[in-house]
């Protein structure tokens, strides 16, 4: 994990391996961003011209390395593109800073120490730079090569060691607090990424529950793990049904973070399918290679609760991790089987690959029993949502338009792309079952909304609920960009943390 520190801006020429400056895309070529002055001086005021000669434009995510001239104590300068210039007198937007810091940190994998001489003119800007650097510096090397794993593995370079953010007032209380928050949140996002990237032969439901228990104890979070026996006793037919085909039995993990001054209570529910083969409705080749990512919702819930505990937020949060492995076998649920869910409702399983909604249904009903002020579930639920919104935006649905809008806006504040989606009542009809109360599948068109409507059936009366379908953004199959690595992204963690903060501040309902 990249360490984050603050350094006085005047000392931007201090000892480091690399000094990072920002460059924006101006109308007539690259323009240096605030923070770059000390470096530019060492170049005799010609840094922008040099960069242009080297082919730099200031475009978003572009990185240009060049040797430093005498006068700078770092041997290398890295110019990172910020994209378009902000409007006159306006500051660079936080998202642009976060992405640029992330791109720089990625370009500096394996470097010991870099000074970030980027625009850091407010506590918010410092937070964005710090978050971006810590998220962009992430690398998952645990499986690279035994002997070298600690150093980043034979094939990995390891992360950037330290990102020193250069600021005018490093001792300012707000600036220091912003850095600490950013470090805690980024560490937890990275923790969720580690879980997502861990191969499914190692991260079974039991193993996930053990990781969650250990971390919960470390951070003063109460934890309770329901194993397969307890699940049978409690009547959790959805979770048991999905887990029935696997040698690795399911778990339901409850995490309870409480604060003595809390006025509000939230419940976070996460889909934790440690591997989704599709079950008897087996996925075809080409669709299951990345399905270790199907526990990303549970990873996000877990990481967000640990972050809330570390930040000491004045809100009570209960987390529910619905963990199971969806496998085909002689003991697996079959298409045509009827499950009796924890709520008492019966579900005809028409497609065993629509398993997420089955485990979530039990967890949502359980979460509803405590009558929290709001419930948010997070799930890699449908390929249809990915079709609708692409691979970088999650869908937000819910039973309360105002709450759904708040969650969408909070995600935006946190720097996560999301979009509100409807739950049209007429789609309910497709889930009618001749045998049971409801089927686990409906119309193919609008499949993401159908899944949302199914979940709604298991949310307690009168509780505000939002459903985040992160099937698109949870796992990056493409090239890394900004602060987003390949593989697990940690989608929704920052949104959940921000929601907890806003709830603690009394900003919601
Ligand atoms: N885990 C998948 C959804 C998914 C697909 C997540 C691609 C990430 C990337 C989910 O369990 C699933 O298989 N959904 C089915 C539902 C269908 C059978 C009704 C789907 O979307 O095809
Ligand atoms: Mn599935
Ligand atoms: Zn799934």
From TrEMBL:
Mn(2+) 1 binds at residues 276, 353, 355. It is an enzyme of class 3 (hydrolase). The active site is at 283, 357. The keyword RNA-binding does not apply. Binds 2 manganese ions per subunit. Keywords: Aminopeptidase, Cytoplasm, Hydrolase, Manganese, Metal-binding, Protease. The keyword Cell wall biogenesis/degradation does not apply. SUPFAM superfamilies: Macro domain-like (SSF52949), Zn-dependent exopeptidases (SSF53187). Residues 351-358 form the Cytosol aminopeptidase domain. Its cofactor is Mn(2+). HAMAP family: Cytosol_peptidase_M17 (MF_00181). It comes from Streptomyces solicavernae. Pfam families: Peptidase_M17, Peptidase_M17_N. It catalyses: Release of an N-terminal amino acid, preferentially leucine, but not glutamic or aspartic acids; Release of an N-terminal amino acid, Xaa-|-Yaa-, in which Xaa is preferably Leu, but may be other amino acids including Pro although not Arg or Lys, and Yaa may be Pro. Amino acid amides and methyl esters are also readily hydrolyzed, but rates on arylamides are exceedingly low. Its EC number is 3.4.11.1, 3.4.11.10. GO terms for molecular function: aminopeptidase activity. This is Probable cytosol aminopeptidase. It is found in: Cytoplasm. Signal peptide: none annotated. Belongs to the peptidase M17 family. Presumably involved in the processing and regular turnover of intracellular proteins. Catalyzes the removal of unsubstituted N-terminal amino acids from various peptides. Mn(2+) 2 binds at residues 271, 276, 294, 355.
């Amino acid at each position: 994990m990249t360490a984050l520190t603050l350094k006085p801006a005047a000392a931007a020429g201090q000892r480091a391996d690399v000094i990072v400056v920002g460059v924006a895309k101006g109308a007539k070529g690259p323009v240096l961003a605030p923070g770059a002055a000390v470096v530019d001086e060492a170049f005799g005021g010609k840094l922008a011209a040099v960069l242009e000669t080297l082919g730099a434009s200031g475009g978003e995510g572009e990185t240009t390395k060049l040797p430093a001239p005498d006068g700078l104590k770092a041997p290398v300068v890295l110019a990172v593109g910020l994209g378009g210039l902000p409007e006159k007198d306006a500051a660079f937007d936080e998202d642009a800073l976060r992405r640029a810091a992330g791109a720089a940190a990625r370009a500096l994998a394996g470097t010991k120490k870099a000074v970030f001489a980027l625009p850091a003119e407010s506590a918010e800007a410092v937070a964005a730079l710090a978050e971006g650097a810590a998220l962009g510096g992430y690398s998952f090397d645990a499986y690279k090569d035994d002997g070298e794993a600690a150093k980043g593995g034979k094939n990995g370079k390891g992360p950037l060691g330290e990102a020193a953010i250069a600021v005018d007032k490093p001792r300012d209380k707000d600036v220091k607090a912003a850095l600490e928050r950013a470090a805690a949140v980024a560490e937890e996002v990275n923790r969720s990424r580690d879980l997502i990237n861990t191969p499914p032969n190692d991260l079974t439901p039991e193993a996930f529950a053990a990781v969650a228990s250990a971390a919960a104890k470390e951070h003063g979070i109460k934890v309770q793990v329901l194993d397969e026996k307890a699940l049978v006793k409690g009547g959790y037919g959805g979770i048991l049904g999905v887990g029935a085909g696997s040698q690795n039995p399911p778990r339901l993990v409850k995490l309870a973070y409480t604060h003595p001054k809390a006025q509000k209570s939230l419940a976070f529910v996460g889909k934790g399918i440690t591997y989704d083969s599709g079950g008897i409705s087996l996925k075809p080749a080409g669709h299951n290679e990345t399905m270790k990512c199907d526990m990303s919702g549970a990873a996000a819930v877990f990481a967000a609760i640990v972050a809330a505990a570390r930040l000491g937020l004045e809100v009570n949060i209960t987390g529910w991790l619905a963990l199971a492995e969806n496998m085909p076998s002689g003991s697996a649920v079959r298409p045509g089987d009827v499950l009796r869910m924890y709520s008492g409702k019966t579900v005809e399983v028409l497609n065993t690959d629509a398993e997420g909604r089955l485990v979530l249904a039990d967890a949502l009903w359980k979460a509803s029993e405590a009558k929290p002020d709001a419930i948010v579930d997070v799930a890699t639920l449908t390929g249809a949502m990915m079709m609708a919104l692409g691979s970088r935006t999650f869908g937000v649905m819910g039973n309360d338009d105002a709450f759904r809008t708040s969650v969408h806006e909070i995600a935006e504040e946190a720097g996560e792309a999301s979009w509100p989606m409807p739950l049209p009542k007429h789609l309910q009809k497709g889930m009618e079952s001749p045998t049971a109360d409801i089927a686990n599948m409906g119309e193919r068109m609008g499949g993401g909304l159908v899944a949302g409507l199914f979940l709604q059936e298991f949310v307690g009366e009168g509780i505000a609920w939002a459903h985040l379908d992160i099937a698109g953004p949870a796992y990056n199959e493409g090239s890394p960009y900004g602060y987003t690595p390949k593989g697990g992204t940690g989608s929704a963690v920052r949104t959940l943390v921000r929601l907890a903060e806003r709830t603690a501040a009394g900003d919601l309902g």
